[in-house]
Write a structure and sequence with these properties.
The chain has four domains: about 1-425, 3-Layer(aba) Sandwich (Rossmann fold), CATH 3.40.50.1820; about 440-620, Galactose-binding domain-like (Jelly Rolls, Sandwich); about 670-880, P-loop containing nucleotide triphosphate hydrolases (Rossmann fold), CATH 3.40.50; about 890-950, Alpha-Beta Plaits. The strands form eight sheets. It has an eleven-stranded mixed sheet, with helices on both faces. The chain is about 25% helix and about 25% strand. The chain contains 23 helices and 40 strands. The chain is globular and about 110 Å long.
Length: about 950
């Protein structure tokens, strides 16, 4: 499971769709031998795939996978690039997939040397375009672990012509041991600069995920990749466990453009030789269990996990595997893509890479997108950026990409993958680079007296601001719970700004000066481990933790009681701030994702001499419209906006007072003329009308793209219809409508906290709605869902079927009178589907109503009482299941003389396709009444035992929407 979490980000790199058909791409599988490493005689075999476009020779692109993945993880990206005309080479890095060797964390002596050998190999292929002898025209891209490899390779090998690293790091030691207040204050000229201290706080959550992904000798990731590839060596038998001495990378290339082999010797440079201060074995002499890691990496992790600190030797080991060690010599044009939802490698890591490469004279473009390790893969616009970058610098076609800056601003409202909920802001330059103007910042006064905060013994209980690797999965639930889990009573000090007078967009790292002192008479150590965060507080009381991230710091505190004053650099984020919002700066003593201070202590936190928080912003032009138009009110005065809002509220109240009272006998759902057209002219739903009566279990059917989910989303108020009306129980449906409280829904995938039980997840979800606990009816919902004693088990141990049933129970909280479910049986096996069928029947048995969208026609036929069939945004059939099935006129007759019956039926006008099956005779009556056919059989002396419709729901469905449609 951990490997899936880490591997979920390995395929974040891609290019836009090529012009050539993917069928024109050919692949060649091979194992390429590389040097085992310094002092190791046996070579290591790398499992590789070469993708060849329709026309060669062509420029080449190396696509590196992320940690925990393999070459299979980037297959789709490689095919996209090959379809665009590139020769593409993918490989499973040593220690992963079916490759041999051990994981050395992008070491110059191992993984980087392997990649240089692959460039040599490409230079010998006739399909690859050369710039000179032994010098292929080649670019490199990769996500996370693969992104760092892109930067390192460009620093060590001058043959690299362009790179596009995605969501990666600058200094791995700083990323895993961040310090937001130590060392030299960061420069204030770039948006996301932060302090890189020497002794940060251990990011144990993410580090543990990475180590567990490679700790097994067979490697969960390797086993998974091997099964995808149809077998292969997933162990480390291709390489010995360690080697001694130093030496250069073998198999050199032919071109003089190559540099000497990377670093020999030095702390942490030789595999199998312990760096100073890092143990290679336990105190009793027992070798450490390293799985697929080198002994050095394993020992460094063990040291950090047990001490919570980074030693100088570990810092140097990680630094040699970091782009920071080579950014001053990267000359290849560099496109840096970083995610705005990323608690592993934040925006500050891309900022540092950009500053360092630009300072050395390199060409840099920076893109921040609305995703990351916690938020998902880049969208099409970023994919196009990468493709255009390579097209210009490798294909030598197209205009030169700008060396500017683009960032995404999200509205905070989800409207599905087909509807944009944010905008992209493009600036001509990245502030502060190579003479560019510095980032602008406004300073907002903060209010709040000094406050005492407690560090509990062992750092437990700890605040939860994020769950490493699961940010995208827990999604909206995490956002709703952050106000409860990130601010534990007594462990946090908070300081608030006044309400903002005008909207603005925060883009980068805010800063604030705080003081930390000992509370007289209370326990305290020599240093405080603290976590800074920044949130917004809207006028209605809703709090949002920006970036779901914190800024950790170690603060040495004087023993004499005098305060230590530090400048705290808060997490770099992008967030639209509205007029009336307050900024809340918090400083807490614990965070679940980091190693805590174990000793109990009481600290007094206050504001510094300048009690303000800086809010950086980067002006630019919007290139993507926003469905929720944040920023459009910038030019409108606050008084005018307030007056307009007051007028609208008063008008709404008058309409509510004049509106007739809802009809108590109104049906649960009435839809009339419903339509939805998106920006750009695409119409997903057109003129949809149907009713849902009490007690119905109605199935909403249709092929992919028919508009089913769009209808459900409009019913839940998630998106607005372009035309038509929707009423539930006689009341209009719309975003925020009170009647929505009578509707339960499972439209988006549910997010559950895996360490809590099913029952606790439901209670927390209900608490987040703000409704009274007594109204939840948790026990009744659980009884209907049929989870039994499993509700008291951790959700992390649930099967897919149990998660689906828990999701249905969540939708049933409050026992809503109308239940909307989108594909509730996805991922369930037949017994689980049968159980789900019973759940829905039990729920509707008491007069409640269920509307379910499904692609399982047989299940709809057995579960639902009524069906609405949609095709191309229209309703093409509406009625009971029996009526829909019987609509085509196909009938079956049980008779005593089948052959004679077939002749009689075949002689009737219009009847066709008569077939005999034992005592059954099937016929397509084609409009002839079934009673007339029976009368003709009886008149002819044929004994008829039964007569009925022949078709299944699937037959009716295919007739309605076409034989080539798939639900």
């Amino acid at each position: 499971m951990v490997v899936v979490v880490v591997g979920a980000v390995v395929a974040l790199v891609t290019a836009g769709r090529g012009n050539a058909a993917s069928s024109d791409v050919r692949t060649v599988e091979q194992r390429i031998e590389v040097s085992g490493g310094p002092g190791v005689a046996a070579p290591v075999g790398l499992d590789t795939t070469l993708y060849l476009p329709a026309r060669t020779p062509a420029p080449a692109v190396l696509v590196a996978h992320g940690f925990g993945g393999s070459k299979a993880s980037v297959d789709a990206d490689a095919r996209d690039l090959a379809a665009r005309g590139y020769v593409v080479l993918t490989w499973s890095a040593r220690g992963f997939g079916a490759s041999g060797g051990q994981i050395a964390l992008d070491s110059p002596d191992y993984e980087v040397a392997d990649a240089r050998r692959l460039v040599d190999w490409l230079a010998q292929r006739p399909e690859v375009l050369l710039d000179g002898p032994g010098d292929p025209r080649v670019g490199v891209t990769g996500g996370s672990y693969g992104g760092a490899l892109s930067l390192l390779l460009a620093g060590y090998d001058k043959r690299i012509d362009a790179i596009a690293p995605v969501i990666t790091y600058n200094d791995l030691g700083q990323a895993l041991f961040p310090d937001a207040a130590g060392g030299t204050p960061p420069p204030a000229d770039t948006p996301a600069a932060r302090t890189f201290g020497d002794d940060g706080v251990f990011k144990r959550g993410w580090a543990g995920i990475f180590f567990s992904a490679g700790a097994s000798p067979a490697g969960a990731a390797g086993s998974q990749a091997a099964s995808v590839l149809g077998g292969g060596n997933t162990g480390s038998s291709d390489q010995g466990s360690s080697g001694q001495g130093s030496g250069s990378q073998g198999s050199g290339g032919q071109g003089s453009s190559r540099e000497d082999a990377p670093g020999q010797g030095g702390a942490g440079a030789v595999q199998g030789t312990a760096a100073p201060g890092v143990a290679s074995a336990a105190p009793d002499g027992t070798p450490l269990t390293c799985g697929r890691f080198t002994a050095q990496v394993c020992a460094a992790y063990t040291e950090a996990a047990t001490t919570g600190r980074i030693s100088p030797a570990t810092a140097q080991l990680l630094y040699r595997s970091s782009p920071a060690s080579v950014t001053d010599r990267i000359t290849a044009p560099t496109l840096l893509v970083q995610g705005e939802q990323d608690t592993l490698f934040g925006l500050d890591q891309a900022d540092a890479n950009a500053r360092q490469i630009a300072a050395a004279g390199g060409t840099v473009r920076v893109v921040w997108y609305a995703g990351g390790h916690d938020g998902g893969a880049p969208g099409q616009s970023v994919r196009d950026d990468i493709a255009q970058w390579f097209d210009h610098y490798l294909m030598r076609s197209g205009p030169a990409p700008t060396s500017g800056f683009a960032y995404a601003v999200q509205s905070g409202i989800r409207a599905g993958s087909t509807t944009p909920t944010g905008r992209t802001i493009v600036a001509d330059t990245y502030p502060g680079l190579a003479g560019n103007p510095p980032v602008a910042a406004q300073h907002l006064p903060l209010r709040g007296s000094p406050q005492d905060v407690v560090n509990p013994a062992g750092g437990n209980p700890a605040a939860i601001t994020s769950l490493p690797g699961l940010g995208g999965s827990i999604g909206s639930l995490a956002g709703r719970l952050s106000a409860f889990t990130a601010n534990l009573p007594g462990q946090s000090a908070e300081f608030r700004s006044d309400p903002l007078a005008a909207p603005t967009t925060l883009a980068g790292s805010s800063r604030v000066t705080v003081t930390v002192s000992r509370e007289p008479g209370q326990p305290a150590g020599d240093e405080a481990v603290l976590f800074g965060r920044i949130s917004t507080l809207s006028p209605d009381g809703r709090r949002v933790l920006l970036g779901s991230s914190v800024a950790p710091m170690r603060v040495p505190v004087p023993a004499d009681g005098s305060p230590a004053t530090v400048t705290l650099t808060l997490p770099a984020v992008v967030a639209p701030l509205q007029a009336g919002d307050r900024l809340v700066v918090g400083v807490s003593t614990t965070d679940q994702a980091y190693a805590p201070a174990n000793d109990p202590a009481v600290w007094r936190i206050g504001l510094g001499a300048d009690p303000t928080v800086s809010v950086p912003s980067v002006p630019g032009r919007a290139v993507t419209e926003n469905t929720v138009p944040f920023g459009y009110l910038v030019g409108i005065g606050v008084i005018l906006a307030g007056a307009l809002l007051a007028w609208l509220v008063a008008r709404w109240r008058r309409r509510r007072l004049l509106a007739p009272a809802p009809d108590p006998d109104a049906p649960p759902l009435e839809i009339r003329g419903l339509a939805k057209t998106y920006r750009g002219g695409f119409t997903a739903v057109r003129d949809v009308s149907f009713d849902v009566k009490p007690g119905m279990v109605l199935g909403l059917l249709g092929p992919n793209g028919a508009g089913k989910t769009t209808v459900l989303r409009m019913l839940m108020g998630l998106i607005r219809p372009s035309a038509g009306t929707m009423r539930a129980f006689g009341e209009p449906i719309g975003p925020g409508a009170p009647v929505l409280a009578r509707i339960g829904a499972f439209v988006e995938g549910p997010g559950f906290l895996p360490h809590l039980s099913g029952a606790d997840n439901l209670r927390l979800y209900w608490a987040a709605t703000g409704r009274p606990p007594a109204d939840a009816h948790v026990e009744e919902a659980l009884a209907i869902a049929g989870l039994g004693s499993s509700v008291d088990r951790r959700v992390g141990a649930y099967s897919q079927g149990m998660r689906q049933r828990l999701a249905i129970a969540q939708a049933m909280l409050g026992l809503p009178e109308l239940l909307l479910l989108d594909e509730p049986t996805n991922g369930l096996d037949p017994p689980q589907i049968h159980a789900m069928r019973e759940v829905l029947r039990r729920y509707a048995a008491d007069g409640r109503t269920v509307l379910v969208s499904s692609h399982l026609l047989a299940e709809v036929e057995q579960t639902c009482t009524h069906v609405v069939v949609m095709h191309k945004g229209l309703v093409v059939a509406d009625g009971t299941v029996a009526d829909i099935i019987a609509g085509g006129g196909a009938a079956s007759f049980t008779v005593d003389e089948p052959d004679r019956a077939a002749a009689v039926l075949g002689g009737l006008a219009g009847v066709r396709e008569v077939a005999v099956d034992g005592t059954l005779v099937h016929a397509e009556l084609n409009g002839t009444p079934r009673a007339e056919a029976v009368q003709a059989l009886v008149t002819a002396g044929v004994g008829v035992q039964s007569a009925g419709p022949r078709r299944r729901l699937e037959d009716a469905f295919l007739q309605l929407v076409g034989e080539d449609a798939t639900p």
